[in-house]
Amino acid sequence: MRDAYQEQLDELADSLAGMCDQVAEAMEKATRSLLEADLHLAEEVISDDVRVDDLRATAEEKAFAVLALQAPVATDLRTVVSAIHGAGDIERMGDLALHVAQAARRRHPLPVLPDEVAPYFAEMGRVGCELARKAGDVIRTRDLARAAELETDDDAMDDLHRHMFTVLMDHNWSYGVGPAVDITLLARFYERYADHAVAVARRIVYVVTGRMPGPLTV
Amino acid sequence: MPPDPLPRQLADMAELLAQMCTAAAGALQRATIALLDCRERLAAQVVAGDAAIDALRAQVEEIASDALLFHAPVAGDLRAVVAAIRAAGDIERMGDLALHVAQVAERGRTVPAEVRDDFAAMDAIAVAMALKAAEVARTRNVVLALELDADDDAMDERHHHMFGVLMDEGWTHGVPAAVDLTLLARYYERFADHAVIVARETVYAVTGQAPDAIPI
Questions:
Q1: Is the CATH number of domain A2-209 3.30.70.100?
Q2: Which of A160, A206, B30, B146: CA 20 to 30 A from A129?
């Protein structure tokens, strides 16, 4: 009986980690569609988002089954509750990747980003995907050192985000209001994506240590 | 001390969620006044007040954990507990978004005259939605919950309209103001989105289904 129970918990962790991989791939493709004005790729991200939503529904069903059938206590109970939170966070990451792809589609065939800011978004995309994959690792391995890495990565994302605003607010900004509005929202999408990944990892730290390592930003 | 019976815990959580919604509504309303009337001290009060909403969330989560631990609820009761955990997260986020509006006001940013009415309108819609979500949490009124979807459409229209104004050739306030207003408008829109989700969570707790599946 205990084995079947452990198996259920493992399956729950696997489905959450799988969601992380899925939204990492979504953000990778969305970023590429943004940088290369690739309509086809943007549409792929947009149509694939329902798969993340389905994965969330499946993960939640698993969590409910454990709660209803096993009535877990202590660490196991915290694990299941954190999985319910985590599934919501990761689904939101998928939505944010979708928003990036929608921006690429809305402006197609024109590029959304002036050449000057494109490298920052390439970097935000890279850091974001890294965060999502690491969050998946943390769910699978409960490795606290790995969880701590997410905090550092998130600082890098915050720096990039802040820097974007400096660029936009500068007197030398010559691309007008329209691109500035797009870039403001896009930078926010990446920043929020990172926040959700950090929240996922922080909840795992809480499950393992019983202490929340910092404020939940989401 | 023995834990409260489950029905009592469910009622307590519903009441706390309603209080959280009301607090978030009040926070956004005051943040908007601070923003539109350049009242930096009022903005600072909103910022300081956010911790109270976070504390309410912690209380909801604590009761929810006790409910799961001591009563091992199933079926509708289990859904109600999980929905409360999730709704508390959404309402806390509404508080954070009100805080973000207040932080913009704290920095002494002003809203240009031609978009003041838009922000006042977004505020009115968002605050009414949060109060409606409070009512839904308290009464579990599924029909009222469905109204929030239509309210959210009104918000989306306002939000969309803002972009039209900012992107217009006639916009004379420059890029920095446009950047601020873009984010501000987004805060109101997300606040409303979360109010919709809170109501949806209640529908789910009551019926076991997403609102789209309800034939009303």
A1: no
A2: A206
